[in-house]
């Protein structure tokens, strides 16, 4: 019996092979699932890390945040390396790094060893975060490209949710995260090892998908690109698409490089690069990862019990998935730009209400913020409305746009720079929240995030251009 390789099947019929396109896009989104799982798994292991490595609060904090440094580096170099070796190739490298990081983080015997493995995981997350949406954009047809790319955000949230669920179940079975579970190893170590299964699935599935046809054209592998395009779109449409790709590269056909981000006519960074940086940065400046990383701490700080705080986090996760599903239905109908500015308006208003609610609080003897019943309800409702608006707009749409907005020649380099700013901003917001909380208070901190949301409205209206329905060969720099 002969095996069937998805990347080498014979030419398909004239109509687009939608099932095949959806299948290989879903394989790419497994990178998003691992992105979410790897980001979320650390939350249940903090006590185990502190005990195992005898670290103080600063050391434990760096153990937790170290992955984000790897993410920034991974996102930056993945774009450039993908231009040299291919999108699929970089996703395979990311899958291997996910495997190594999952095993090593669980087996680590020292804090330094743990940080090294977490940074390797960060490299994988950073690479997957920019390469998965780029790959999906480069194999999808324009009329449903946005919907497929939006699935990436759903995969990220599902990864976070399953990491939280896995952590909870393992700790419950063992009695606590620091207690031995199977084979004499503590539960917190098994929390990391749970990632090995989806990482292995990701690696195996990547071996059966084709390389991006646009990368193949750039590398001069015309016949291989034509075979993939015909497999995706059919004989006639595939041949036509090849001609369009070659025409888009004809005026400036050379190996992609970072200097392509500089406009030859002006000697300045291309405007589209600044737009990409702005999208990547504003997605973090509105403070969403404060909810992801500090949700339980936040709600306990304003008077909710630990159980109530964890329940609120579960509610926020469910609302996030629901909002992303709504985006899947809307993004190719109403467009990217309307979703962005509507999201910005919604986040500005809801964050403003959260700020007002927090500003009315008083500190108790334990230095915890106490809110009246009415203000507590306002803060809770407004914060969850904020989560809905974020996941309806900036959460998925930013990744969709970064994957499709750059011209073919600079897509890898543009993604590299935007990814660096996205993860750098993520690290900055994550690290500064405790400092801002102690220095200027909760209300002023959320006031800053609300201000960033207001500024993002004008950024979208002035600088962001719609990409709905446009082929990648029509993108201009």
- The CATH H-level superfamily of the largest domain is MFS general substrate transporter like domains
Q: In percent, how much strand structure appears in the residues? A: under 5%
Q: Helix tally?
A: 19
Terminal residue distance: 49 Å
Radius of gyration: 23 Å
Overall shape: globular
- Domain module count: 3
The chain-level mean pLDDT equals 78
Question: How many beta-strand runs?
Answer: 2
Task: Characterize the largest beta sheet: strand count, sense, and whether it forms a barrel.
Answer: 2 strands, antiparallel
- Return residue spans where pLDDT drops below 50 for at least 5 consecutive residues: 1-13
Named at the architecture level, the CATH assignment of the largest domain is Up-down Bundle
Structural category: mainly alpha
How are helices and strands ordered from N to C?
A: HHHHHHHHHHHHHHHEEHHHH
Order of strands in the sheet with most strands? 1-2
| Broad CATH class of the largest domain | Mainly Alpha
Relative helix content: over 70%
By CATH, the topology of the largest domain is Growth Hormone, Chain: A
Write a structural description:
The protein has a two-stranded antiparallel sheet with strand order 1-2. It has three domains: 12-209, MFS general substrate transporter like domains (Growth Hormone, Chain: A); 214-255; 258-466, Growth Hormone, Chain: A. The chain has helices spanning 18-40, 46-53, 57-85, 87-107, 111-139, 145-174, 187-193, 196-206, 213-218, 222-233, 235-250, 271-285, 288-301, 306-334, 336-359, 373-392, 394-404, 411-439, 441-463, and strands spanning 362-363, 369-370. Helix 5 (111-139) packs across helix 18 (411-439). The chain is built from 19 helices and two strands. The chain has 477 residues and is an all-alpha fold. Strand 1 and strand 2 form a beta hairpin.
């Amino acid at each position: 019996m002969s095996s069937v390789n998805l990347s080498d099947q014979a030419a398909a019929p004239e109509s687009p092979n939608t099932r095949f396109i959806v299948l290989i896009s879903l394989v790419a989104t497994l990178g998003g699932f691992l992105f979410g799982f790897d980001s979320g798994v650390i939350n249940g292991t903090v006590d185990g890390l502190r005990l195992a490595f005898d670290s103080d609060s600063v050391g434990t904090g760096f153990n937790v945040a170290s992955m984000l440094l790897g993410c920034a580096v991974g996102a930056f170099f993945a774009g450039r390396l993908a231009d040299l070796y291919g999108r699929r190739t970089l996703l395979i490298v990311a899958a291997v790094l996910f495997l190594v990081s999952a095993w090593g983080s669980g087996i680590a015997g020292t804090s330094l060893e743990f940080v090294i493995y977490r940074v390797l995981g960060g490299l994988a997350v950073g690479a997957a975060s920019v390469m998965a949406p780029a790959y999906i954009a480069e194999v999808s047809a324009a009329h449903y490209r946005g919907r497929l790319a939006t699935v990436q955000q759903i995969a990220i949230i599902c990864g976070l949710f399953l990491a939280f669920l896995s952590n909870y179940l393992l700790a419950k079975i063992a009695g606590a995260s620091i207690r031995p579970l199977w084979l004499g190893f503590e539960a917190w170590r098994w929390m990391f090892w749970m990632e090995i299964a989806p990482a292995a699935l990701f690696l195996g599935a990547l071996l059966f998908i084709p390389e991006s046809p646009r990368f193949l054209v750039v590398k001069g592998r015309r016949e291989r690109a034509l075979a993939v395009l015909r497999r995706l779109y059919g004989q006639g449409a595939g041949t036509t698409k090849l001609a369009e790709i070659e025409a888009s590269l004809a005026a400036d056909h050379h190996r992609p490089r970072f200097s392509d981000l500089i406009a030859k006519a002006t000697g300045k960074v291309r405007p589209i690069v600044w737009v990409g940086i702005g999208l990547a940065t504003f997605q973090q400046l509105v403070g969403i990862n404060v909810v992801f990383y500090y949700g339980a701490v936040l709600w306990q700080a304003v008077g909710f019990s630990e159980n109530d705080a964890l329940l609120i986090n579960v509610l926020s996760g469910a609302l996030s998935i629901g909002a992303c599903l709504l985006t899947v239905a809307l993004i190719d109908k109403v467009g990217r730009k309307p979703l962005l500015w509507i999201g910005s308006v919604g986040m500005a208003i809801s964050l403003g209400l959260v700020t007002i609610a927090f500003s009315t609080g008083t500190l108790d003897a334990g230095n915890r913020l106490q809110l009246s019943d009415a203000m507590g309800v306002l803060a809770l409702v407004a914060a969850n409305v904020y989560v809905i608006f974020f996941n309806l707009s900036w959460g998925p749409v930013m990744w969709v746009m970064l994957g499709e907005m750059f011209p073919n020649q600079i897509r890898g380099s543009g993604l590299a720079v935007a990814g660096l700013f996205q993860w750098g901003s993520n690290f900055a917001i994550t690290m500064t929240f405790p400092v801002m909380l102690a220095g200027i208070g909760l209300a002023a901190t959320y006031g800053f995030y609300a201000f960033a949301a207001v500024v993002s409205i004008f950024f979208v209206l002035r600088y962001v251009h719609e990409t709905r329905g446009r082929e990648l060969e029509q993108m201009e720099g």
